[in-house]
Structure of Cytochrome P450, family 2, subfamily AE, polypeptide 1:
Amino acid sequence: MLKKHFLLLSILKTVVLLNNVLTNNMPPGPFPLPLIGNVLNIGFTDPLGSFQRRYGDVSTLYLGNNPCILLTGYESFKEAFVEQADIFTDRPYFPIIDKLSKGKGLIFSSGHMWHQQRRFALAALKYFGVGKKTLENSILQECRFLCDSIQLQTPFFLSQTRFHLVTDAVANIICGLVFGHRFEYDDHKFHLIQEYLDDVFQLPISNWGRLYNQFPTLMSMLPGKHQTAFASMSKLKPFLQEEIIKHKEERDPSNPRDYIDCYLDEIEKDSEAEFTEENLIYCVVDLFGAGTETTSNTLRWALLFMVKYPEVQEKVQSEIDQVIGQTRQPLMDDRTNLPYTYAVLHEIHVRQHYYLHASQNGQQGHDSRRTSHFEGHFIFGVMVLPLLKSILQDKNENSTPYEFNPAHFLDENGKFLKKDSFIPFSIGKRLYPGEQLARMELFLFFTSLMQCFTFLPLEGRTLSLKGTIGVSSGPEPFQIRAVPQ
Ligand code: HEM
């Protein structure tokens, strides 16, 4: 019975696919095969680079039977997400996302609901000091905890995102903003929350997630990692509910302490019932999921590159020594006087995106619900995949796009060179809402680590610059030595 159902479904999908390919005025792309689409056209070493080379900055790629518009290049990004922002802002529908978050929260919601949640998140982040001294002080406090803990660990082990000090430190910044408190690095509950979040956030970009998107009914009956992630989401909720209950008991509405307090205020005021406790849980999950792995991965890449390029590490440290010295902590105001260090951080972002795979951008697509005339093609109801990596590695932007070279962000006088096309946080209405927060975290954590330690390889070990697949790509697990300065 199940086999018959599957066969009928496959035939139907193939007919729809052929109809789409033959009648749509879609951008160019390779001819798709039934069920698997263009999977065979995606290269292993440079998954989607070949599409850009053969078809230009706007091409069609079939993920299974579903057509997507693949965007590469800054100009096509600008046209879609800035000039036609009203059309290309919603998220596409994925069964896996629907199952995990019911289309709620911040990252995967669309329309009025997304607009409301995003407006609120931006206001809350601003209220709690993004770009202000209060937040800077709490990040600096976390930098001290991190450096003290690294001092006790040698060699310093940097595993996958789970359970390592850098992720703990970064997660604590979100904890402060959302819960109003931090966790000790050896807190079992803290690690459980991170473990569950990791399961949930890795699922949509995993093969299990892709299978679920293709065959949701079938997959919901089968065992696999998707079931672990669903269970993790269920286990995560009571932790967050416990925090919400505590906040309800202790809060003073005239003096909100954190994101949850502000959200509870909004629930009381909201007549459209879009601000609910359930939605609060999904928003908190999104803030942790989006705000922890990304920043922690960038910092782990930063340490790895410093070990791989000791001459760059030395230059960064001597700049920090000259401008800040060893007696005080780095401050955001030091940024303008540390052009080399700042350029190194930007270059690390570019390298990190080099390792981003096609699959990771898949969940950041934008849905065009209305017909639009885009680069000479009529587009309707298809997913759009922006490939950020293509912009960051554009030969016209960076003289040596495949080399780690901080000079990409320096002018001839050694001053920091700002580039419009540097958009690791994306552009348009979906631009990452806490860009300033991430910039602050990256700068303060990186300069603090460079001020306190020299990072060296372990004798006889070769460090790999290969990236892992994740929401954002991290380096493979590695061990290094941290020698106090
Ligand atoms: C190195 C650090 C980070 C990078 C590179 C980064 C990058 C991105 C990118 C590329 C997007 C997708 C934008 C789009 O769909 O066009 C995004 C979305 C998002 N990020 Fe980040 N991010 C970082 C850190 C953070 C942090 C610390 C937070 C926590 C406040 C955060 C929260 C979010 C949220 C909530 C969204 C969804 C926005 C929406 O759909 O409206 N991110 N980020």
Remarks:
- The chain has one domain: 2-484.
- The first helix runs from residue 2 to 23.
- The pocket of protoporphyrin IX containing FE is lined by residues 106-107, 118, 286-287, 290-291, 294-295, 298, 364, 424-426, 430, 432-434, 437-438 (CB under 6 Å).
- The two ends are 69 Å apart (CA to CA).
